[in-house]
Amino acid sequence: MMAALSETFPVAGYYSRLLPAAAAAPLRARPLQQRRRAGAKGARGAAGAARRVGAPRSMGLLERTRKEWFILGIVLVIAVAKLEPAVGVKGGPLKPEITITYIAVSAIFFNSGLSLKTEELTSALMHVKLHLFVQIFTLVFFPTAIWLFLQVLSVTPINEWLLKGLQTVGCMPPPVSSAVILTKAVGGNEAAAIFNSAFGSFLGIIITPLLLLLFLGSSSSVPFTSIFSQLFMTVVVPLIIGQIVRRHIKDWLERKKPPFGAISSCVLLMIIYTTFCDTFSNPNIDLDKFSLIIIVFIIFFVQLSFMLLTFLFSTRNNSGFTPADTVAIIFCSTHKSLTLGIPMLKIVFSGYEHLSLISVPLLIYHPAQILLGSVLVPTIKSWMVSRQKALKLTRQPKAPVKV
């Protein structure tokens, strides 16, 4: 019709072409406005995205700091001890001969008694072969192997007190927490890890002081009977009291979940601080950087070597261990307790002017085992999953061959 009108009335044809163009103009204008609005929104969105990208980075750093606060705390208290050693020395304002030797050490083991869930260990009690392997490796093979290794290192120029510190690392029992956490992260036998960590801690109360006295001896100023009487009063008694108290307030503990680990770590930082105050207040003690760097390398070498050794032993033919058992063995056999170790060193080597140097390898070993374990978690988990799948396939019955 419009075509006919345009042929009959040229003006009508002109307006017929103009009107559609006018009608289409708002349609083209609106997308332009929308594009402008969308551009503004995009700019605001980009700014918001930039803030969101920056926020996770800052949050990630904050979260990392929260997780590693104890390691940072060790560095901080050592630095404070270096700046003002007179505060924490024996006879100083903190009175460490009372507050640390008796109160702080007793508090740590009372806290351990409250937190140890001995009722959860019954499920893993019957795996005797695994427990024997872990405890013998930790408390017999480990210290003996370190002693033999130190006979070779004794001819080197490495600081002799740091070498003695390596021996103390070998004598320590397994930790209550880190081996269990890493075993759980991999998906290994968590019940076995809990049992061996807790049982090893109990054994360590008796065996570790004996091993320290056997391999290193004690200061002449502290008699043997005095050491064990102090260990009994500040370690065994608080631990037993903690377990008794736990039975009466178990429901409250399960409901409130007090931060046992954080409490022990804070007390431990106080012990480390006073130990290094003694070091820095003694002008006769000098630690060369060469020895310290070599000790760090030795610690990582020892950890990797013993992890590989436990892996080879527990995966050999007819070992009787599952892949999940192997994971628990690797971590429980090679990890050492800083929480139990530092207080014991404080008691057994009371009077040693080089006590802080003896403590240095253990202070290095603790973060090193967590760092190394965390790095190896994906690799060990991948091996365990593939190994479990392979074992499952070999146990499946083969389908009969049709003739």
Protein model, in words:
The protein has helices at residues 2-8, 10-67, 69-83, 96-115, 128-153, 160-171, 178-186, 190-215, 224-248, 250-256, 260-280, 289-314, 323-334, 338-348, 355-395. The chain has 403 residues and is mainly alpha-helical. Helix 7 packs antiparallel against helix 8 (190-215). It is globular, with a radius of gyration of 33 Å. Mean pLDDT is 78; it is low at 1-30.
Please describe the structure with a list of short key phrases separated by commas or semicolons.
78% helix; globular; disordered N terminus; 0% strand; mainly alpha; 403 residues
Helix and strand arrangement:
Elements: H1 2-8, H2 10-67, H3 69-83, H4 96-115, H5 128-153, H6 160-171, H7 178-186, H8 190-215, H9 224-248, H10 250-256, H11 260-280, H12 289-314, H13 323-334, H14 338-348, H15 355-395
Overall structural class, as computed from helix and strand content, comes to mainly alpha
Cα-atom radius of gyration? 33 Å
Indicate the low-confidence ranges by residue numbers: 1-30
Oligomer: single chain
- Pattern of helices and strands: HHHHHHHHHHHHHHH
Mind summarizing the main beta sheet?
Answer: none
**Helix content percent band:** over 70%
Number of strands: 0
Strand content: under 5%
Instruction: Count up the helices.
Output: 15
Shape: globular
> What is the mean pLDDT?
78
- Measured between the Cα atoms of the first and last residue, the distance is 83 Å
